[in-house]
Amino acid sequence: MKLLFAAAFCFALSACAGKGVEHYRAETPALDLKTYLNGTLDAWGIFQGRAGDVQKRFHVVIDARWTGTTGILDETFTWSDGSTSRRVWTLTQEADGRFIGTADDVVGEARGEVSGNALRWRYVLALPVDGKIYHVDFDDWMFLIDDKVMLNRSYMSKWGFNLGEVSLTFVKR
How confident is the model over 125-135, as pLDDT tens digits? Predict the structure, then answer.
């Protein structure tokens, strides 16, 4: 039994490793985050629970602008239940090309890395659920399809356990 548990644990750990963003370095079109996230974008998305059931739908309008190496993403969410929310990201491009992001509901800093047509963005979100705040790990993968469309898949977890996924389609106006 102990051997079976150890094997399952090792398998679970190896599944978490996955491929890094550099795996996509040859993919085109190349994502220039400061160019794509500039202007107004619309995004439509869903949140799916662990079992795959869609629990929430939403639309986001993003007003994005850059000054030098600093970008502001002002996101206004409209949820399927009619409620609204807002998140304002401040993004900073580091000298090595990576990105750091902050927002009021992000714990610490988000870290992003671009390679080819892909962006991997990792952060901890302070997520309100039923009157409580939970710190949830997000592992976002964004893929530029063309100059107007980018797809996003976010994996949500807590203590390494899958909580669900968020899927988004961004369309630049």
Answer: 999 989 999 99
